[in-house]
Each structure stands twice: as structure tokens, then as C-alpha cells.
Design brief:
Layout: E1 4-15, E2 18-29, E3 33-37, H1 44-51, E4 59-64, E5 67-68, H2 76-80, E6 83-86, H3 98-109, H4 114-127, H5 143-155, E7 161-165, H6 173-188, E8 193-197, H7 201-207, E9 210-215, E10 218-224, H8 225-230, H9 235-242
Parallel strand pairs: 3-8, 3-9, 6-7, 7-8
Antiparallel strand pairs: 1-2, 1-4, 4-5, 9-10
This protein binds adenosine-5'-triphosphate (ATP).
Pfam families: ABC_tran
Protein name: ABC superfamily ATP binding cassette transporter, ABC protein
GO molecular function: ABC-type amino acid transporter activity; ATP binding; ATP hydrolysis activity
């Protein structure tokens, strides 16, 4: 059986009195691509943020590579470096060049050798068609280019696992394909383990091994991708898919 990289058991999350995630249970295997789908407000971003320690949770456990992760504990920062995350907003530092944005984490946080890190960053930039952009500032980039830099910045930390939260949601339509292709290549060529939140249904269908369908903070379905898109098990998922343009 494939190794389980991430295991989530009985996770409960509230924002003050608002209970947002209810008894979330799932695991992700090495090399698996899981897409998290569900209507707006169903809790997708909250779940992703809990996995990356950006949100505290009240009950349950998250185990990553065999270690329980508790954001308040000291070992968390080290574990977290193994989990790369890219958001809808690119969050690049405006006063740093593309290269310095990428090198900040590897050199300052991980103490990687600067020359090696730079050479790796150049290779990564080339792989996303941005070889000539190392010395420009984020304001000189299009949205799609910024998002590709954000992906490179996450990869430069050598993650074992990637979380993508609606990374194309704020891009112009012609920029979307380039970013999705990079994620597809990561999955197919690098065999990266990942969880992807997306509203791009064709992309989800193409990339996902498995779909987790969330509704009102509960996982209604955990279904292999081909089955989910052709024969969803719940009426709610059928309605959701019918409302999507794909
Ligand atoms: N910081 C917060 N404080 C209070 N409530 C929040 C907060 N963030 C999210 N929520 C609530 O939690 C629920 C889940 O929100 P979340 O953003 O996780 O959903 P989502 O599925 O990612 O939605 P979308 O697809 O629109 O991004 C919603 O009811 C939302 O209003």
C-alpha cells in the first residue's frame, strides 16, 4: 500500500462561535493529487489553512509524514517548510526582485547555500518561462507571471507536499492556462503530492486522482476523480457539477 503522507482525523474548526469544519477525515498518499471541491463558503480555504498551520483548530489531529502537527508547538515551523503553499493572492514582496523573493526563504530561513539556491532558482524560473525576469520587480509582472513566481518561490524550499488554493482565481483568462500547466507538470512529471482547491473543473478533472467534495464544512464525498465527474454519489455534488461550466 502507498505511504500516507498526510492524515486528518476528526478535525473540527470554529471561528469564534461559527463552527466551520465538522469531523473532517481523510488521508493523502505519496504522489497523490487530491482536489478539494465544493460551493463557496463550504470550508475549502479554511481546511487548507488548517493543514498549513495558518489557522488553529479546536479538535482532531493532523499528521504529516508521521508527525502530529500542532501549530503552537516548536517543531511546527520545521515541518511546515515541507508543505508549500500558493494562494490566490501572490503575496510577493514588492521591494524585492523576483530572484530575491525566491531566495529569501531558502537562504534566510533554511540557510541553504546562496550560490546553489540561486542556480536552482534560475532553473526553476526557466521551467516556468521566466528565465529573463530574475532581476525585475513584481510590479513589472502580469498576474500570471506573478503567480508563476509564487509557485517557484514555494518550490525553492524543496517541499514534499504542495497546497494550491484557487491560484488562478484572480487571473485574466489568458493567464490561467500557463499557471495550470505548471501545476500539471508538477503532478505528472515530478510526482508531487498535492491538494488543489480550484473552480476550474476541466483542470480538476484532468489532474485529480481523487476528489473531496465539501458542503457546509463536511466531506460529503471522497471519490476517485473519474467516478466523481461521471457519476457523483450525492445529489448535492450532482447539483454542484451541473452548475459548473465544463
Ligand atoms: N476569518 C474568518 N472569520 C470568521 N468566519 C470565517 C473566516 N474565514 C472564513 N469564515 C467563514 O467560514 C466559512 C468557510 O469559508 P471558506 O473561506 O473556508 O470557504 P471556501 O469554501 O473556501 O469558500 P470560497 O470558495 O468562496 O473561497 C464561511 O462561512 C466563511 O464565512
Amino acid at each position: 500500500m502507498a505511504e500516507k503522507v498526510l492524515q486528518v482525523a476528526h478535525l473540527e474548526k470554529s471561528y469564534r462561535k461559527k463552527h466551520v469544519l465538522h469531523d473532517i477525515n481523510f488521508s493523502v498518499e505519496q504522489g497523490e493529487v487530491v482536489t478539494l471541491l465544493g460551493p463557496s463558503g463550504s470550508g475549502k480555504s479554511t481546511l487548507i489553512r488548517c493543514l498549513n498551520g495558518l489557522e488553529p483548530y479546536q479538535k482532531g489531529t493532523i499528521t504529516f509524514e508521521g508527525k502530529k502537527i500542532v501549530p503552537t508547538e516548536k517543531n511546527w515551523q520545521k515541518i511546515r517548510q515541507k508543505i508549500g503553499m500558493v494562494f490566490q493572492s501572490y503575496d510577493l514582496f514588492p521591494n524585492l526582485t523576483v530572484m530575491d523573493n525566491i531566495l529569501l526563504g531558502p537562504t534566510k530561513v533554511q540557510k541553504q547555500d546562496r550560490t546553489t539556491a540561486r542556480s536552482e532558482a534560475e532553473t526553476l524560473l526557466k521551467s516556468v518561462d521566466l528565465a529573463d525576469y530574475a532581476n525585475v520587480y513584481p510590479r513589472e509582472l502580469s498576474g500570471g507571471q506573478k503567480q508563476r513566481v509564487a509557485i517557484v518561490r514555494a518550490l525553492a524550499l524543496h517541499p514534499d507536499f504542495m497546497l494550491f488554493d484557487e491560484v488562478t482565481a484572480s487571473l485574466d483568462p489568458e493567464m490561467v492556462r500557463g499557471v495550470l500547466t505548471i501545476i500539471e507538470n508538477l503532478a505528472n512529471q515530478e510526482n508531487m503530492t498535492m491538494i488543489v482547491v480550484t473552480h476550474e473543473m476541466n483542470f480538476a478533472k484532468q489532474i485529480a486522482d481523487r476528489v473531496l467534495f465539501l458542503q457546509d464544512g463536511r466531506i460529503l464525498e471522497q471519490t476517485p476523480s473519474e467516478k466523481f465527474f461521471t457519476n457523483p454519489q450525492t445529489d448535492r455534488a450532482k447539483v454542484f457539477l451541473d452548475s459548473m461550466d465544463f
